[in-house]
Amino acid sequence: MTSLPPNSKAHPVILAGTGPGDPDLLTLRAVRAIGAAEIILHDALVDARILVLAAPDAVLIHVGKRCGRHAMSQTEINRRLVECARTGARVLRLKGGDPMIFGRAGEEIAALRAAGIAVEVIPGITAASAAAASACVSLTARGRARAVTLVTGHTADGGLPPQDWAALARLDSTLVFYMGSRHARAIADRLIEAGLDPATPAMLLTNVSRPDETRRLARLIDLADGIATADLAAPALILIGAALDAAVPVATIRADARELS
Questions:
Q1: Are 61 and 91 in contact (CB under 8 A)?
Q2: 38-47, 211-220, 240-249: which has the minimum mean pLDDT?
Q3: How far, rounded to the nearest angstrom, does the alpha carbon of residue 29 sit from its chain's CA centroid?
Q4: pLDDT band at 261 (very low <50, low <70, confident <90, very high)
Q5: Which pLDDT does position 2 carry in this prediction?
Q6: In the list 26, 119, 177, 202, which could disulfide-bond 153, CB 3.0-4.6 Å?
Q7: Can you say whether the dihedral through the CA atoms of 148, 235, 183, 68 is positive or negative?
Q8: Please, which residues have CB within 8 angstroms of residue 258's CB and are 6 or more apart in sequence?
């Protein structure tokens, strides 16, 4: 894709992450950007408590995609970003979590640059970090997890993505599956088939950092047991790995799962 020369009439479009949902977890820079924006294109997962920080006369455009329900295609979002920027308004693209992690920010940046429009990115707290903080679980632990692996839990059409399951099972890592609740059983089965211990600690979290947050602790083999319909519709995260064992005693994980179900 060939980029045009920078458009001197357009302000840079800002792509900002809003974190997992709690407005208290916004960065100061994101708060300032929200208050200064004249047009805000926001995802479905951006909390209403964050949108009220916008100026009273700001134009809010819902462009979110959630659980297969698309308010606008990615191609259309790209087009609207360019159109809005060319009006000379201060344009803000608000995304849940961090825009650079499973946020399709690369496609939007490419479209804006191709139109000669500058881009700035404001990072946000990604769900993996927020989940670890909420559950007081370190994602890395000496001798247990020397890495953290972020994995998408579904494809564009809602299916289970192809993965090198054997490689994931071999990693001395905490695995973090984003948007994987609908495929929790298949994820667990694939990892166990690939050699990961069925007793590996696992955690399913929904609505991380929000008032209705839920956490379910279990062994990998029991990960999908008791998942409610509400869990399937909510933004969810799956953590798997020995590092979780350091925060939750092995003998109590199964009991805790029953209490939280």
A1: no
A2: 240-249
A3: 20
A4: very low
A5: 45
A6: 177
A7: negative
A8: none
Q: What is the mean pLDDT of residues 239-249?
A: 78
Are 221 and 189 within 8 A, CB to CB?
no
Per the structure block, which two tokens stand in for 43?
A: 């995802």
Contact assessment for residue 85 and residue 13, using Cβ atoms and an 8 Å cutoff: yes
Catalytically annotated residues? 43, 65, 179
Helix extents (H) in 11-89: 28-36, 48-51, 74-86
- 3 state DSSP class of 11: coil
Angle at 98 between CA 95 and CA 102, to 5 degrees: 85
* 42 backbone dihedrals φ, ψ, rounded to 5°: -125, 150
Q: Is residue 79's pLDDT more than 70?
A: yes
Domains of the chain: 13-122 (3.40.1010.10), 127-260 (3.30.950.10)
Give the DSSP per-residue string, 82-126. Answer: HHHHHTT--EEEEESB-TTSSS-HHHHHHHHHHTT--EEEE----
Query: Best-predicted range by mean pLDDT among 29-33, 72-76, 220-224?
Result: 29-33
Task: Render the burial of 90-102: b for 16+ CB within 10 Å, e for the rest.
Answer: bbbbbbbbbbbbb
Q: How confident is the model at residue 67 (pLDDT cuts 50, 70, 90)?
A: low
Amino acid at 230: A
User: How far, in Å, CA of 28 to CA of 23, rounded?
Assistant: 11
Q: How far apart are CA 195 and CA 212, in angstroms?
A: 35
| Cα separation of the two ends of the chain | 49
Coil vs helix vs strand at 40: strand
